[in-house]
Design brief:
heterodimer; A: two-stranded antiparallel sheet; B: 3 helices
């Protein structure tokens, strides 16, 4: 039998290739030339991410299917790749001094971050459930290790174990869902599933129904939707803060990318008729996330619940569907990247070795002691709460208007009410910073130039994109999925 | 000849045993073994469908799942060892520093 090797197009995966190869080189460099490279690995990885982002930009504007339709480069995936690369670059900037301070300055750290980024890019560009699954696992396995990177810290171990056990558990559900879809449609390719379901009535088929439910469970876990969210606060609290920042943005965006592609492209019919299920999930996610965030005392846990609530808003964009819905999702994910990473950057700046100072109480009096830092934190909190003129407001406005336009008025109202609830706990941080007496001595800040750069980038994103969002909205509208 | 349905039922039963095991067992390693059982029941389902549909995609998928499961086992056991070193227990009820 003659075996025909299908053509493969390495150019289409060039950003992934760059990231993968350089991650491996960093690992080798760390092992063999530790003394020479130890301190520069962070800068090198930062440059690599910037380079990859430039390469990714050149892919904008075309739609290329490669590797026997298993991988796709379209504006949607390129836009998501840019979100991942921006978040990775900022996290690397935040990590350089943080991991030295925590005594976890190992080369694997950057390698794992780069591998996780590569997994996310594979998820965003996956045109086959196999590719999406592989990307998801590459991302998750790197994150399991990163969550437990402070090996001698029991909390970090615990975060890692919880994340690992629940993550692997959720993966099994996702896989069983894929198996069900495969059994019915005879393929794992997203386009072929879509064309099969277009020709066959799908909702009467119990296998499709079970498969789709299992897929919702699997993805719901990764984006931290409410019935599947219990791991989030624990993992966010226990993981090293820089990794928490990383987990709250990139992997969530990646899971949303895959979620959107699977539900809007492969299962559009199911998505429309089942929007009630996603509707309930979105409402639960927003409400529980915001309500439980109110009672949190630790700022990392508070941001974890806030990230759950934000997943609810993003889910609303998927429910709204269509071009409007998916472009609002894209915009919101980028907006969230800037404001959330900014908030975590402030948390990192205030942390000390062995003492994270992550209780909200610890922030009291910050407004008088370090006014500039306090103003920065305020801006991020206002933006997360959705107060104009910051980018969080535009993002939420965009999503709510997409929901209203596509007829989900009640959902939009619930979203607005939730947004109001969230103002309470975001503003509490501000109140504590400005209206309470300090409960502790503030050590002089040790701001490294990298952290300052990260703060400047996130501030720029939060303010500039909030006031002049037109170009980004334009880009997001061009990047919606091509049906 | 055994019907394909029986393989699928077996796969479903194995998956349920694994899921229940994850929920009720308290030893991290046993929980992990239950997860592996679930992954293997997925493999069984894939192979059955592959045979039924006369398509190779399912079997390819199984290879990938096995690879991923191996990587996950390596990382998972390392995490369990790390926690055992610090706490001298792998009972998930005792690993409860963070809640709510």
């Amino acid at each position: 039998m003659e075996i025909v090797i299908p053509p493969f197009d390495l150019k289409s995966i060039s950003p992934i290739l760059i990231i993968t190869i350089s991650a491996m080189l960093i690992l080798v460099a760390d092992v063999f030339f530790r003394k020479t490279f130890r301190d520069s690995l962070g800068y090198i990885s930062f440059l690599i991410v910037v380079l990859t982002a430039m390469v990714a930009c050149t892919q904008m504007g075309k739609t290329v299917y490669s590797f026997s339709d298993m991988f796709v480069v379209d504006n949607f995936s390129v836009f998501f790749n840019l979100i991942f690369l921006v978040s990775t670059a900022i996290v690397i900037l935040l990590s350089v001094s943080y991991i030295k301070q925590e005594g976890i300055n190992y080369g694997e750290y950057y390698t794992l971050i780069l591998f996780a980024t590569m997994g996310m890019m594979l998820m965003a560009g996956g045109a086959d459930l196999l590719t999406i699954f592989l990307g998801l696992e590459i991302m998750s396995i790197s994150l399991y290790v990163l969550a437990g990177f402070r090996r001698d810290c029991v909390r970090s171990n615990e975060a890692s174990l919880k994340y690992f056990l629940l993550g692997a558990f959720a993966t099994c559900f996702l896989l069983y869902g894929i198996a069900m879809l495969y059994g019915t449609t005879g393929t794992t390719n997203i386009k072929e599933i879509a064309s099969f379901l277009a020709n066959n009535p799908s909702l009467s088929n119990p296998m499709i129904v079970t498969g789709t439910s299992l897929l919702i469970i699997g993805f719901g876990f990764k984006v931290a939707c409410v019935p599947f969210h219990k791991w989030t606060p624990d993992v966010y609290e226990g993981a090293p803060t820089a990794i928490t920042a990383f987990m709250s943005v990139g992997p969530k965006a990646a899971a949303f990318a895959a979620f959107t592609r699977v539900f809007l492209v492969a299962l559009p019919d199911v998505e429309q008729k089942w929007s009630i299920i996603l509707w309930v999930l979105a409402v639960l996610t927003m409400t529980v996330g915001n309500l439980v965030a109110i009672v949190q005392k630790n700022i990392k846990r508070m941001l974890a619940y806030s990230s759950i609530a934000h997943a609810g808003y993003a889910l609303m964009a998927i429910i709204a569907g269509g071009d409007f819905g998916s472009s609002s999702l894209l915009f919101y994910m980028l907006a969230y990247t800037f404001m959330n990473l900014g908030a975590f950057a402030v948390v990192i700046v205030l942390g000390r070795k062995g003492k994270e100072n992550a209780n909200i109480e610890d922030y009291s009096g910050l407004g008088f002691k370090h006014p500039l830092l306090a103003v920065t934190m305020c801006i991020f909190m206002f933006s997360l709460a959705g107060i104009p003129p910051f980018v969080g407001f535009i993002g939420k406005f965009y999503i709510f208007s997409a929901a209203i336009k596509n007829g989900f008025i009640i959902l939009a109202i619930i979203g607005v009410v939730n947004s109001v609830i969230s103002v309470y706990y975001y503003l509490r941080v501000t109140v504590v910073m400005y209206m309470k007496k300090p409960v502790r001595e503030f050590a002089p800040l040790s701001l490294s130039p990298f952290v300052i750069l990260a703060l400047i980038i996130t501030l720029w994103g939060t303010i500039h994109l909030g006031i002049f969002p037109a170009r980004l909205i334009d880009l997001a509208q061009k990047s919606t999925l091509l049906y | 000849m055994i019907l394909f349905t029986w393989y699928l039922i077996l796969s479903g039963v194995l998956f349920s045993i694994g899921a229940v095991g994850v929920l009720i067992r308290r030893n991290a390693i046993v929980i992990f073994m239950c997860i592996e059982l679930m992954l293997n029941s997925v493999n069984l389902a894939f192979v059955t469908f592959s045979r039924q549909l006369n398509s190779m995609d399912g079997q390819i998928f199984v290879f990938f799942i096995m690879t991923v499961a191996a990587a996950e086992a390596a990382v998972g056991l390392a995490i369990i060892i790390a926690i055992y070193r610090n706490k001298a227990t792998v009972n998930v009820d005792d690993i409860n520093l963070m809640k709510w």
